[in-house]
Amino acid sequence: MKKLTPLAALTVSVCLSSLAMADDVYDYGEYLSGECTTCHRLTGEYNGIPGIVGLEEADFIEALTDYASGERENQAMASVAKSLDKEMMEALARYFGAQEVADEEIEEQGAAEAEPENKD
Amino acid sequence: MKLTRREFGVLAGAVGVGAASAKVSFASGGGKVVVIGGGAGGATVARYLKKDAPELDITLVEVQKQYTTCFYSNLYLGGYRTLDSITHSYSKLSDEYGVNVVHALATGVDGNAKTVTLETGDVLSYDKLVLSPGIDFRWDLIEGYGPEAAQVMPHAYKAGVQTQILKQQLEAMPAGGTVVIAPPPNPFRCPPGPYERGCMIANYLQKNKPGSKLLILDSKDKHSKMALFQDAYNNIYGDIVEWVAAEFTDGGVKSVNTADMTVTTGDGEVTKVDVANIIPGQKAGLIAEIAGCTNDSGWCPIVPETFESRLVPDVHVLGDASIAAAMPKSGFSANSQAKVVANAVRASLTGSKAFPPRFRNTCWSLISDDNGVKVGASYKAGEEKVEKVDGFISKVGEDDAVREQTFAEANGWYDAITADMFG
Question: Model's pTM, two decimal places?
Answer without folding.
Answer: 0.90
